[in-house]
Amino acid sequence: MLRLETIAEARRWRRAQSGRVGFVATMGALHDGHLALLRRSRAETDTSLVSIFLNPLQFGPGEDLDRYPRDLDADLRLLEEAGADAVFLPTRDVMYPPGFDTAVLVEGPLTQRLEAAHRPTHFRGVTTVVTKLLQVAQADRSYFGMKDAQQLLVLTKLVRDLAIPTTVVPVPTVRAADGLALSSRNIHLDPVQRRASTAISRALDAAEARFDAGERRGDCLRDAAGAVLAAEPLIDVQYVSCAALDTLEELDRVGETALVSIAAMVGVTHLIDNHWLGLPAGLGAPHADLGILPPALRSDL
Ligand code: PAF
């Protein structure tokens, strides 16, 4: 696995690739969710590039940048074992050299609701860094997790709006055996908090079960999830949402698709999770036909 540290090195590496390149952007502290992105990339492209950059721009004042887990040696070992071809490891100065003055902003409702309501500068940081990383990677396909649902929708829109020449591929959430969605932040949970946190995925299961049983009222789906969360005192709920994929506006009635999502603090740890309702089956399989995705998840329209 080649280590690329500067933009010039990464560009030279990219120019030398003849086949299709897949790209996975990460902030390190890798787990099986990240490796699922890489596995999908390896199945669908000829060469896979992973970036590790803990992006300060997407953390607001008082958020957990300082506490964000870091273990570069372990990350590199995992990537090597999982078959990454190259890893881009820019420093802060490489990404944001003195005089860096540019921001990329997706405007509109997608970046005003849910996570954005609690973290007003977060998506500006994400879209700025991802734009730069995509410029460097010039990847045919870029893999992002469905666990960060709002991020995935915002980045899909970014790629579409700016005609960035890559296809965004959504990759399903990886969960622990007890249902908890894998996240680098889970490491901060003590055993009692860890157990309590499973209420989040149980709450989403409850909402999805109601949807599968034919319930289409947004309030009823939100209430089904909320009731499970209410029984767990260690969970401090920030939102329970049942929203439209294209705007993330709360739905009175669900049509074909919806995103049911939850954000909560468990102690000082911020957890998010979601279920995508009404998406076609088979999405998680390598070479899945992305044409069957709803428009909000298509970067090629
Ligand atoms: O999802 C993440 O880990 C980050 O938000 C990303 C996409 C790597 C940008 O820093």
Protein model, in words:
By secondary structure, the chain is an alpha/beta fold. The protein is built from 9 helices and 9 strands. The strands form 2 sheets. The protein has a 6-stranded parallel beta sheet with strand order 1-4-3-2-5-6, sandwiched between helices. Helix 2 links the parallel strand 2 and strand 3. Helix 6 crosses helix 7 and helix 8 runs antiparallel to helix 9. Pantoate (PAF) binds next to strand 2 and helix 6.
Topology:
Blueprint: E1 2-4, H1 7-15, E2 21-26, H2 32-44, E3 47-52, H3 72-82, E4 86-88, H4 92-95, H5 115-118, H6 122-137, E5 141-145, H7 149-161, E6 167-171, H8 191-212, H9 218-230, E7 235-243, E8 258-266, E9 269-277
Parallel strand pairs: 1-4, 2-3, 2-5, 3-4, 5-6
Antiparallel strand pairs: 7-8, 8-9
Pantoate binds at residues 25-27, 55, 58, 126, 129-130, 148, 151.
Jot down its keywords.
301 residues; alpha/beta; six-stranded parallel sheet; 9 helices; globular; binds pantoate
**Computed structural class:** alpha/beta
Can you count the helices? Answer: 9
Q: What is the average of the pLDDT values?
A: 97
The radius of gyration is: 19 Å
Order of helices and strands: EHEHEHEHHHEHEHHEEE
Strand order of the largest sheet: 1-4-3-2-5-6
Distinct bound molecules? pantoate
Cα-to-Cα separation, first versus last residue: 34 Å
Using DSSP, what is the number of strands?
Answer: 9
Q: What are the segments in which pLDDT stays under 50 over at least 5 consecutive residues?
A: none
Helix content: 25-40%
**Shape field:** globular
